[in-house]
Specification:
The structure is a homodimer of 305-residue chains. Chain A is α/β, with parallel strands linked by helices. The first copy, chain A, has helices at residues 40-47, 64-67, 70-79, 94-104, 160-165, 170-177, 215-219, 238-244, 249-258, 280-286; strands at 2-8, 22-27, 30-34, 54-58, 86-90, 112-116, 132-138, 146-152, 182-184, 187-189, 202-207, 225-229, 264-267, 290-292, 298-301. Chain A folds into 2 domains: 2-154 and 199-301, Ribonuclease Z/Hydroxyacylglutathione hydrolase-like (Metallo-beta-lactamase, Chain A); 160-193, no CATH class. Chain A has 10 helices and 15 strands. In chain A, strands 6-5-4-3-2-1-15 form a 7-stranded mixed β-sheet. The first copy, chain A, is globular, with a radius of gyration of 21 Å. The termini of chain A are close together. The interface between A and B is medium-sized, with 29 and 29 residues. Chains A, B: Its cofactor is Zn(2+).
């Protein structure tokens, strides 16, 4: 199971009830942050999420409401005794931005590996994180901006029935389950002989800030959860949405429909939208399984089978 | 009258109930910020202080809990239609830090004038701000750190009685009051001939982060209000205070006594001090007119006469 906590759902600038963009994904004791607006570490303390287990930060773009909390967070991770390297992924310019931050804060007690503008799918070569395949899409905003889609792979389960049926010696079971192949007593044993059928993983797609470009539909295809910006609640604000390269609630819901996502979490609300929760009936009428995010909401995303 | 609002009273890292160091001084419609920790602009929104009228920011030192909110604030000042230059004063390294911030946030719609490590007293040459004399003291912290003492000068009041006694023509009254001298009908008229005696201004001294060095006593001498760090409430934490270059509540109160300050506002509490307000009886026993600060407290500082 994966869960995601929205630490900040505010777009543009923080408002009294909404910190700036930041989401915290929990997976098997490891944490991934997507974006890190001002107040991220304050929100983490409010919610008691803890600072341990964060090894990966994905930044969508370099606007202040998405990165201004990073400097404070990097420092607090050090205070929380982080000593393993932190991987930061971001769009073009992220290396320059991190370098600038290091002028402001010298002497981090852990290393930083910055991955700039990765193309296509990649995985992070660390235990647990290597079970996640990360896909990247270039969005359409006023600056370079990346969408992230995380696929949490699921191991095939071990089938005693199948192992017995295939006469696999018990001494090989454990290693076959791990994916190794054996030649033993003149016979080849493969993982397929002890493993059940492939199981569907969890697909979490995170898209902000952008216009609703066609490519997002494929990118978010069949997402278990589609977390997407929804800057303006009112259809009448479409002009602002086009001008500022954002979306209306309706456009966000349309993308959820077209991508066949299972669940939609709307976030990144304009400061002018003071009570986005009042629009939940409206969004549900457009996309049934939609939720209006708020600071502190946690969504559990179970495996589908 | 001057007033000061504490936007953040937390030392080191923000805690759920305390943002990082930041104070907002109001004087005749103008605002001065001292320090700008993460969450400053959030606290300003919570308290509804507004972003207009800030032309001067004084930074004590370059630790994250004192500057990490500056980037977001600079951006929000631009959103609040600031177009006049902002003056930022800070210790050695402030120019480099601001330069780094400008890599992260290009295109501010107003200019920045950065004054690095000023020595002695200075004034800012802008209306209203030029009524304030700012004194600077090098403190004793783990990095270069400045204390600020602001003296809000008070105009002498106009005395009709004195003007009449000195036979000053009415046509000269206004300009004499402004400080001009006139030679008129073979006689010299000076401001002294229409102005009452000198009046005491308001002295606001702000000292954080530091050990209680002797020089602070003179620097804060006769302050109307002495705002001072008080990292540790417990006398037993003196070892930590010495090691981390901070103060205990007792040391802070001692400085208030020795400087003959009228009022003491204790701030910059360690995250380990969860309820500093519980120590107010203790601080009052050491320095009668002491107040334990909290986020959002506003203190009005009237003229003494």
């Amino acid at each position: 199971m994966v869960n995601i906590t929205m630490l900040g759902c505010g777009g543009n600038v923080p408002s009294p009830s909404r910190f700036c963009s930041c989401s915290l994904i929990n997976y098997k004791g490891k944490k991934i942050l997507i974006d890190c607006g001002e107040g991220t570490q304050i929100s983490m303390k409010n919610l008691g999420t803890g600072f341990k287990g964060i090894d990966l930060v994905l930044i969508t773009h370099l606007h202040g409401d998405h990165i201004n909390g990073l400097l404070g967070l990097l420092s607090s991770l050090g205070n929380a005794e982080k000593r393993d390297p932190l991987i930061i992924v971001g769009p073009k310019g992220i290396k320059r931005a991190i370098k600038a931050m290091m002028i402001l804060w010298e002497g981090l007690p852990y290393g930083l590996n910055v991955i700039e503008n990765p193309i296509g799918k990649f995985s992070v070569n660390m235990p647990i994180y290597n079970e996640i395949e990360i896909d990247v899409l270039e969005l359409e905003h006023s600056v370079e901006c990346l969408g992230y889609s995380l696929y949490f792979k699921r191991n095939r389960s071990f089938s005693v029935k199948k192992a017995l049926f295939n006469n696999v010696p018990k001494s090989l079971w454990k290693n076959l389950q791990k994916g190794q192949t054996f030649y033993y007593n003149n016979k080849t044993y493969t993982p397929d002989m002890v493993l059940d059928k492939e199981r569907k993983g969890i697909k979490l797609t995170y898209v902000t800030d952008t216009r609703p470009i066609k490519e997002i539909e494929t990118f978010a295809k069949d997402s278990s959860i589609f977390i997407c910006e929804a800057m303006y609640s009112d259809d009448m604000d479409i002009g602002k949405a086009v001008k500022n390269k954002h979306m209306t609630f309706r456009e966000t819901c349309n993308l959820a429909n077209k991508s066949n996502s299972k669940k939609l979490l709307l976030t990144h609300f304009s400061p002018s939208v003071s009570k986005p929760e009042l629009f939940e009936d409206f969004t549900k009428s457009l996309f049934k399984n939609s939720i209006i995010a708020y600071d502190g909401i946690t969504i559990e995303i179970p495996y589908e089978d």
